[in-house]
Amino acid sequence: MTDKELYESLTYENKNAYLEMSDAEKDEMYSLCDDYRAFLDNGKTERECVGEALKMARAAGYTDMSEKDSLKPGDKVYKINRGKNIFMAVIGSAPMYEGLNIAGAHIDSPRLDLKQNPLYESTDMALLKTHYYGGIKKYQWPTIPLAIHGVVYDTDGAKREVVIGEKESDPVFVITDLLPHLAKEQMSKKMTEGIEAENMNVLIGGMPIKAEDVKEKVKFSILKILNARYGMNEKSFQSAEFEIVPAHKARNVGLDESFIGAYGHDDRVCAYTTLRGILDQTAPERTACAILVDKEEIGSMGNTGAQSAFMMMTIAEMVEKATGRCSVTDLNRVIENSAVMSSDVSSAVDPNYTSVSEANNASYAGRGVAIVKYTGARGKYDSSDANAEFVHEIGELMDNDGVIWQTGELGKVDQGGGGTIAQYVANLNMNVIDCGVPVLSMHAPFEVVAKSDVYMAYRAYKAFYKR
Q: What is the CATH number of domain 111-246?
């Protein structure tokens, strides 16, 4: 063996997924990504994502678990939690106590939420007060077209779904910003202070209504429109759940259309590919499960977050219906033998900002799905750190199935960091590792991913379900 051959056998270098893919794989990639863009356009909130997942599940023959008294190999079931979580499973042929293969992604994304009393009038304009959700750069949100999505109870007590700003014929909304001529003071501030959270107020109207003895004529005009269309009054906002999201559609990016730009890649790109992965399962050996959760961007708290008991309660119900019993010991045995892919995105190295990444341990757009052993920050705090045995097993699964993958971490040590749902799953005593798509401009209103990485994420989750 020559020195060159020995060198090549001893060293490792990431591969560009596009160069490794066959023409048939590229055709499959293009089709998958077209479907994914449609999923993004239809699912801009966690409720809408669950709705899209439910359509896909029912079309594939899944049944509500509550309708089944017992479960047998090959059965496909789902369970929904408060409209914001969905758990899906294909019952495997192996005894359930041997463990489950679970892939979990989150479907909430950074956004703006309306406050409970949001509507007010100022300078002959009507505006809505907001409270930002998750980690955003506030300066990215003014002066872009915005849409309103959510649910509200009308004055008769009926729940109404509201989506305004997505159709071409719809109006859009906007947060205004200062003109440069008057922004000397604003532009001298730090970027974190240039846009104040309490000033992120959404412009909703400006045409006063001709009404005697009405002081706030623009506000009154808006309330009349909301009442006519949705049966609302001002008090309706107090129980409503309205999210302000970018109004643009998912688009191909680049002359070669090698990227997808959209709102919400974090983490809907992993949610969608996880869905596609489990929908391809028909007769797995180990029971295949997928769960989409809410609230990850704010710590996975609450009854729809990854820290809730929903997943454990659903697994217990599934075990009981599949085996006829589920004691605490039975459930513990299933859990400790289970394995989880925390399907979440990683940061891609940005060629404009390479200094924040450590080149040898970063994820790159176009080099396949990213396997992330640990997340956290400042000494791996708030992290799940996968053990060597599980990392090796996952790597072997990927290689054996022809998945192009890479490893990565979220920036240089002490540069930043972040977390996923992996730590909460690990606390249940399951093997877990993060696996997802590298993202450019993460948490921005328009994030970017490489199509090859979307495809390889889908392939990775399919391979995982075979373990």
A: 2.30.250.10
